[in-house]
Amino acid sequence: MALTLLVLIVVSPTFLDASSQHSSAKGEVSILGMMLQGHIFKNITKAAFGDVCLRECYQDIRCQSFNYVFTEDICELSNRTKEARPEDFVPNFERYYFRKDMKRVPLGSVPELPAETCKEIKTSEGGQAVSARYWIYSIIPEKIVFAYCDMKTEDVDECSSSIPICDPKANCQNTEGSFHCQCVTGFSGDGRSCTDVDECSSAIPVCDPNANCQNTEGSFHCQCVSGFSGDGKSCTDVDECSSSIPDCDPKANCQNTEGSYRCQCLTGFFGDGKSCSDVDECSSSTPVCDPKANCQNTEGTFYCQCVSGFSGDGKSCTGKDWVRNAPTSITTSLVTYPFQPYLQEVTYLLSENLQFNESIIVFSMLSVIRYRRSISDMHFTLALKVLNGVVPTNLNTLSRNVSSIPVCDPNANCQNTEGSFHCQCVSGFSATNEDAPIRLMGGGANYGRVEVYHNGKWGTVCDDHWTINEANVVCRQLGFSSASQASCCAKYGQGSDPVWMDDVYCQGGEAMLSRCTFPGWEKHNCAHSEDASVACNN
């Protein structure tokens, strides 16, 4: 019975005032037969009880208490007290437990002495523990962080950690005893790790069909494409034609289209709409005027004017006092024309008598090169193409006109031609103008610079008053049906011989260019930079 009582006395915690036995332990609380296990961070051997253990504990900021193994003179420094970890305070017959009361650093107040939980701080410090930020090591593995402890609930606010526990792109929500990380809008993941969401790759469009989507970190950006306006999520067509954007030619209409616009040249002009040029309807391969009318091109349009001797709107011209007769007989004789040996003179006998004061207009599908009045009242003679010996007979329309205004020299007979007239000197007189041959140079078979043969030399024609009328005369003299273009300014190069003709004026029906009106041979005020040219229809 006595043995049992002795054991109980030894095992039971006994609180001693160390100062009554050891002066060096003054102010410390010691308990014989007890120890704090599991928190020893340093052992000191051969430490005599007293100064060595106390000095070592005071000098180390981590020291909260120590165990003294009196059987071996060993000090075991601990970073906790029995108040902080009562579950680790156990009996040991070989040890004294000493709590450091003086100069003890509160648990969790420095990073060298972090706490595991807020509860541990509260139990360690008792009434001295207040809600504040403390150093905690249990929030992030192997990391010591500074976080807020609520001493009322003993909960640590993980979201206040000095080292974020959530991804920078996540929101942290503290809960009692835990926390929750949630990625912000535009990111996905568990909150501890968040990655950007590419909204532009979503199966559900986030932008307007007429917008470009640009992914950004955590978001995206929609921008309307050119020709549309809006915030990108909704885009509407821009009417460029009602703004200052279009660069259409003044001679073009602006047509708005979805997302763009189109420039279209007005009628009478051609081009891409941003640059429009006048259409020369008079040079078209399809005639726009009556054959007996002159075509005058103007900007964006044209007008037709019947030649002298015909009337109408120019698109349709008619003569006057028509008599339809067919020739009753034909005689031919070979006539030599310099540089035009293919011409023959054909005489047609009419069934109706022609008076001397009347003129004849000949209509046919033929290219009439030359026309003159015969001596006999019953005949007229044409110089025209006779190919392979075949004489044309389809002169099926004749017209007779009476004119009271003299247009020829008193010593010449006046003969009307289709849309014009012709003067021929009577016997004993000669014409001032000669029948001069022409040619085209610098181009091709049916186009080029006009040159005239006179006085044994070839020379050029100045482009002053050079119109489609003069070009038609040139082309018909060369055997073509008509002219498609009358050009100025040495289009096909400059000639080097004399400038024979200038200010040439043709009615359009003359058989030869030299029969048109002009001041005279080599009378001009121009240079070869103004050489005239033509293009003939094949």
Automatic annotation (TrEMBL):
Question: Which GO MF terms are attached to this record?
Answer: calcium ion binding
Membrane topology label? Single-pass type I membrane protein
The UniProt record lists the EGF-like domain at: 155-195, 196-236, 237-277, 278-318
Cellular component GO terms held in the UniProt record: membrane
Which Gene Ontology terms describe the biological processes this protein takes part in? animal organ development; system development
Top-level taxon in the UniProt lineage = Eukaryota
Q: Which residues form the signal peptide?
A: 1-18
Q: Which Cys pairs are S-S linked?
A: C462-C526, C475-C536, C506-C516
Q: Where in the cell is it found?
A: Membrane
- Residue spans making up a coiled coil are none
Q: Which UniProt keywords apply?
A: Calcium, Disulfide bond, EGF-like domain, Glycoprotein, Membrane, Repeat, Signal, Transmembrane, Transmembrane helix
Q: Which residues form the SRCR domain?
A: 438-537
Keyword Acetylation attributed: no
Q: Can you name this protein?
A: Uncharacterized protein
Q: Which organism is it from?
A: Pocillopora meandrina
